[in-house]
Amino acid sequence: MSVYTEVERTELVAFLSDYAVGNLVSYEGISDGIENTNYFVTTEQGQYVLTLFEQHDFEEMDYFLDVMTFFYQHGIPSAHPEADKQGHYLKTLSGKPAALVGRLDGRGVSDIASVAQCQAVGEVLGKMHVAGSAFSERRVTERGAGWRQDTAERVLPKLDVESAKLMTAELAFQSGYSTLNLPSGLTHSDLFRDNALFEGDNLKGIIDFYYACDEYLLYDLAVTVNDWCIDESGLLEADRYQALMSAYTRQRELTLAETNHWNLVLRAAALRFWLSRLQDKHFPREGELTQIKNPDAFLKILRQHQQQPLIVNAA
Question: What is the predicted pLDDT for the residue at 315?
C-alpha cells in the first residue's frame, strides 16, 4: 500500500456520494506496502480503506473483489468491499479502478510475530485453502516461474558478482518448479505480517487480496512461513515455524509430494520476494508516499533454505 495517485478532497466527496456511507469526515494516505494507492477514509458512518489500483484493469479487479466476498461469506475474517447505491463494488476515481472496503479492527504485525500469532495465521490459512476449493473463478499467477526468470534478467546487471552467481544458480535449481505435481487452488500469495490484523494475539482479519491467484497451495504456505516465522536475526525460528505448520496441517494435511518438494517451494517463495524487492529498489515507481523494502531480508532467508533445509515435521 502506498500513494502513487493523489486524490483531492472534492474528488473523494463526489466519489463517496455514490455510497450510503454518509459525508466525508477525514482521509489520509497510507505509506505501508508498495503496489497500490491507499487511503484511510472516515465518514459519518464508519471507517474504510480506499484503494486505487495502479496496475490492474477492471476485469482483474472484479476477480479480486469476488475473492474477498467469497472468503467473507465462508467465515474467513477478512475485509469486505462496500457496494455503491447501484450494487457495484468497483468504480473509477482519478482515472483508476477504485474500491471502498470496510476497515477492520486491529493492526498489522510490524515487529516479530509471537508464537500465538503464527499459530493463528497458520490456522486461518489452512481454512482458506479448504474453503477455496469451492471457488469457481480462475486466475493464473503473474509472479510465477516465468516472471522470476524475466525479472532476474532485468536485475542481474545491478547485482554484485556473488549475488548474481547465487541468483543464476538458484534459477537453475528451480527450473522444474512449473511441472511439480502439487495441489493447486485459490491462494492469497501475499500473506505477510502487515496483511493480517491483530489485537494482541487475537486475529481480527486478513486484508490485501490483490495477489490472489491459482497457485500451488504449498507456495502460499511457503510465502507465509518465510515472513511470519523469523526471529530478531531475520532467520526462521523453530517455535514459530512449528506453531504455524501444526496449526495449518490440522486444517489441511500435506501430501507426500508437498512434503518432498517443501524446500524447493520455500526457496521459490523467497526468490520471488527477493526479486520483487530488487526490482522496486533499482527500478522504483514514483509516488507521494512509498515504501521500498529491504531485498536482503529475503536473500538471507533464501540462503538459510539452501544451507539448512526445513522439514515439515508438524502434527
Answer: 47
Q: Which amino acid is at 286?
A: E
With vertex at residue 113, the alpha carbon angle to CA 230 and CA 210, rounded to the nearest 5 degrees, is: 90
Cβ-contact 2, 35 below 8 angstroms:
yes
Residue 287: what pLDDT? 57
CB atoms inside a 10 Å sphere around CB 154 = 13
Rounded Cα distance between 31 and 231, Å, is 24
Q: Is residue 303 part of a domain?
A: yes
pTM of the entire predicted model: 0.89
pLDDT score recorded for residue 1: 40
Same domain, 238 and 184: yes
Domain boundary among 47, 68, 103: 103
188 close to 206: Cβ distance less than 8 angstroms: yes
Q: 196 has which bridge partners?
A: 206
Domain span at residue 268 reads 108-307
| pLDDT-flagged residues of the chain (< 70) | 1-2, 32-34, 286-291, 314-315
Q: What are phi and psi of 24, to 5 degrees?
A: -65, 130
What are the helix (H) ranges across the chain? 9-16, 58-73, 115-131, 145-155, 161-173, 217-228, 238-251, 256-260, 262-282, 296-307
Cell of 231: 526471529
Q: For 149-202, give the DSSP string.
A: HHHHHHHGGGS-HHHHHHHHHHHHHTTTGGG----EEEE-S---GGGEEEETTE
